[in-house]
Task: structure prediction
Amino acid sequence: MHNNATHGILLSVVAPAHNEADNLPDLVAATAKALGHLDCAWEIIIVDDGSTDQTPLVLAGLLSQYPMLRVLRLRQRSGQTAALDAGLRAARGTFIATMDADMQNDPAEIPRMLELLKTGDWDMVNGWRKERHDPWIRLVSTRIANAVRNWLTNEKIHDSACGLKVFRAECTRRIFLFNGMHRFMPTLFRIAGFKVIEVPVRHHPRHAGKAKYGVWNRVFRAFYDTLAVRWISSRWLRYEAIELTRSNTEVKARCSKD
Result:
């Protein structure tokens, strides 16, 4: 992934959306309100993942109201990971925030998470929906999926699949996303050598639209996707190198593969 931070934009907010026509006006308005006081330039990128409802028309109307809004549309439905990847590649900010378009994530959390990144101590701040407002079957399947992920990847993240994340744009240059890998971004960033912290964030009930992902996505897919991440971790290139100069009298370079 390649990000261009030369536009003077500090923060890009990326939100994949599929058939979220009823939620998008509130999402953009809430994001504009949450970020309006920031003393910097920012943008929000909505990626329409081949919606079949009124999403395209709603987004066209929002474009005329919000100058900071950008809209990408996938020609056909390609999945949440593909939509997210498209948004990350288009993002121009030094920092990137991601969130779901269903209004269950709260954009008001983004400034607080951004401040943690600005300290320089962390490269990613991952949201943790500590108190979730979802149907019980969704809660159970998510907990099972998180447990499987952590067990197989030696991870301690409580909520890897939380859509609300803020991270340095440079992090995306070290990873590639495959189908389903958006649920593993904290682990992928950590494997790539970046520092990840998890913070509790507010979570709201869904008021409009329907959830796009069920038990199959959260349990069974989580298992074989986790096996892929486990393999990636075992094969990741880890090394350090220095360039020699004419004044060097001794070569000090090391390569580590563990």
Notes: The chain has a mean pLDDT of 82. The beta strands are 9-17, 41-48, 69-73, 95-98, 124-128, 165-168, 196-200, 239-240, 254-255.
